[in-house]
Specification:
By secondary structure, this protein is an alpha+beta fold. 26% of the residues lie in helices and 18% in strands. It starts with 11 loop residues before the first helix and ends with a helix. Its main location: cytoplasm.
Length: 489
C-alpha cells in the first residue's frame, strides 16, 4: 500500500506553481493526510496545554444588522479544560471564569494564538504542522497561529493588508464568506476599530442593512464550508468573514508575506500615524473604544513617524535590490505576513518568474471557491451543506433584470452614514421656527442632526484606501527624489 506522502496529488513544486498563479480562493484536498496536526483536537490540546491560561473572546448569540467587533466583546483568561467543561454544560469551579456566561447565550473564541508562544516549552509540537508540503521549506508551527471556538464564534468581515493565507481545518467545520478586492467599496471599509494590517467592513454580511449599505447587494460573495483535513488558500486582499458551524472547531493558519507587502507596509504606517493622531485627542464626539484589543496600546506620534520612515526606506531598498537582481530567490523562503511571536517583521516571499504557460489543475484535489448568487432571504438561513463548493447561483438580493437597480454611491463613504436630510441643517433649523410643522418634521430634524460630520467620518475619508494609496505614492516619490539629490551632491 502506498504511503500517505506518496498519495498526495501535488508535489511541492507543483503546489508552489499553483499558489503563484491562483487569483481566487481554492481548497486543497488530500494534502495533509499525514500531518500530525490533524490530531490537534480541542481535547488533545487540553491535555498538552494542561492548565495553561488562554485568552478567549466571547460574544452574545444574537441577530443584529451590525458586525460584532472585538471592541464590543467580553474576554476571559481560562484553560482549555475550563472551556471544554463549559461547552459540555457544566458549571461552577469546573468552568472557571466561564461561569459568568451562559453557554446557550454566548459563543467563545480563542483566536489568533501564536503556536510558538503556546508551545514554547514543547518545541517538538511545531513539527506537527508541515507547510513544506506546500513548498515553504522550513515553515512549521513556529510560523502559524491556532484558532479554537464554539459554534457561532466568528471573525468580523475584514481584509488583511499583508500577504496571502493558508488555513488548515483540524476539527469541526467553518463557513467562509469571501469577497474579491475589487468589491471593497461595496463592503464599506473602515479603520475603526483600528488594528494594524486589518481593514474592517461596516456590513453584517449575513444580515446586511440595505438602507445603510445599498451597494452591498452587488458584492460578489464566494462561499465554502471548510472541513477537517482541507486547506483553504485565501489570495492577497480578499475580504472574508468566518464563522464556526460545529460545537467545537480548531483551525491552523499561516500568513505568507509577499513582495507586494513592502508598499502595503508604508500604507499601513501612514494609516497608523493618521489614526493615532486623530483618535488620540479626545473630544465630544471622539470618546469611543477605537483601538482593537489585539493592539498593545497607543503609540506616540514620534514612534509612528519613525516606523513610517523605516517602512519607506525598507521599501525603497527592496525595490533597488529587485532591480539589481535576476529574481532567482528561492520561492519557498517566506515568513509570516503579520508580526511573529516576538513582534518582528520577517522577510517576504519572492516567487521566481514563470514565463511558461500554466493552467491551474482544478479538479477533485483542487476545488475553486465559486461565486454564489442567492436571494437575500436565503442567505441568513444557509446551512453548511448549502455552502459546499457549487456552481454559481443568485445571492444576496441581487436585483432581477426587471427590478430597479440602485445607483452606485460615492467611492468615499462616511463611517456612520445615514440617509441625509435633503434640506440639510439650515432647513431643519428653519423648520423648528415655522408654523404648522408636518408630522414627520421632527424625524427629519433628527436625521439632519445625525448627519453632522464626526471625527470618525472625517477619519474614514482620510484613511480611505484610495487616499492612502495616493499619499503612499507621493511619499515614495518624494523619498526617491531626495535620495537622487543626495547621491548627486
Amino acid at each position: 500500500m502506498a504511503s500517505p506522502t506518496a498519495m498526495k496529488p501535488f508535489s511541492t513544486e507543483e503546489t508552489q506553481r499553483i499558489l503563484h498563479h491562483l487569483q481566487q480562493p481554492a481548497v486543497f484536498m488530500n494534502m495533509t493526510c499525514d500531518w500530525p496536526a490533524l490530531h490537534w483536537t480541542a481535547e488533545q490540546l487540553s491535555v498538552c496545554l494542561s492548565d495553561k491560561l488562554i485568552r478567549f473572546r466571547l460574544g452574545r448569540r444574537e441577530e443584529t444588522n451590525t458586525p460584532l467587533f472585538e471592541t464590543q466583546c467580553s474576554y476571559v483568561e481560562a484553560s482549555l479544560v475550563h472551556f471544554l467543561s463549559w461547552t459540555c454544560g457544566q458549571s461552577g469551579p469546573d468552568v472557571g471564569p466561564f461561569s459568568e456566561f451562559s453557554y446557550s447565550e454566548y459563543w467563545a473564541y480563542a483566536d489568533y494564538k501564536y503556536i510558538a508562544m503556546l508551545f514554547q516549552d514543547q518545541p517538538s509540537m511545531f513539527e506537527d504542522v508541515r507547510w513544506p508540503d506546500f513548498g515553504f521549506e522550513g515553515r512549521d508551527g513556529r510560523e502559524s497561529t491556532l484558532w479554537i471556538g464554539t459554534e457561532g464564534a466568528n471573525t468580523p468581515c475584514h481584509q488583511d493588508s499583508y500577504g496571502c493565507n493558508l488555513v488548515l481545518q483540524v476539527q469541526g467545520r467553518k463557513q467562509w464568506y469571501l469577497f474579491p478586492p475589487d468589491d471593497a467599496s461595496k463592503l464599506y471599509p473602515t479603520r475603526i476599530p483600528y488594528e494594524e494590517s486589518s481593514v474592517f467592513s461596516q456590513v453584517d454580511v449575513l444580515r446586511p442593512d440595505p438602507r445603510k449599505f445599498p451597494d452591498f447587494q452587488k458584492a460578489r460573495v464566494h462561499t465554502v464550508t471548510l472541513q477537517p483535513g482541507q486547506v483553504l488558500f485565501v489570495p492577497r486582499h480578499w475580504w472574508h468573514y468566518v464563522e464556526s458551524v460545529d460545537p467545537i472547531t480548531v483551525s491552523i493558519n499561516s500568513w505568507i508575506e509577499l513582495e507586494a507587502d513592502d508598499v502595503a507596509r508604508v500604507s499601513e504606517a501612514v494609516t497608523k500615524a493618521v489614526v493615532c493622531a486623530m483618535k488620540g485627542c479626545p473630544s465630544d464626539d471622539n470618546r469611543d473604544d477605537w483601538l482593537n484589543p489585539t493592539e498593545e496600546g497607543v503609540t506616540s506620534h514620534n514612534e509612528n513617524m519613525q516606523y513610517l520612515n523605516l517602512a519607506i526606506r525598507a521599501c525603497a531598498q527592496r525595490q533597488t535590490d529587485l532591480h539589481c537582481s535576476t529574481l532567482t530567490l528561492d520561492p519557498r523562503d517566506s515568513r509570516p505576513a503579520k508580526r511573529d511571536s516576538g513582534g518582528q517583521i520577517r522577510k517576504p516571499c519572492v516567487w521566481k518568474r514563470d514565463p511558461a504557460p500554466f493552467t491551474i489543475p482544478f479538479g477533485p484535489h483542487l476545488i475553486s471557491v465559486c461565486c454564489q448568487r442567492r436571494d437575500s432571504t436565503e442567505t441568513r438561513d444557509m446551512t453548511p451543506k448549502d455552502l459546499e463548493v457549487k456552481p454559481s447561483r443568485k445571492w444576496a438580493g441581487e436585483p432581477q433584470e426587471d427590478e430597479q437597480r440602485t445607483e452606485p454611491a460615492s467611492a468615499v463613504r462616511l463611517h456612520r452614514g445615514k440617509d441625509e436630510c435633503s434640506s440639510g441643517l439650515t432647513q431643519c433649523v428653519a423648520c423648528d421656527r415655522a408654523d404648522g410643522m408636518s408630522e414627520n418634521s421632527s424625524e427629519d430634524c433628527e436625521e439632519s442632526r445625525d448627519s453632522i460630520i464626526t471625527t470618525n467620518d472625517l477619519l474614514d475619508c482620510l484613511v480611505h484606501p484610495d487616499v492612502i494609496a495616493t499619499v503612499t505614492g507621493l511619499l515614495l516619490a518624494r523619498h526617491t527624489r531626495s535620495h537622487r539629490t543626495t547621491a548627486a551632491s
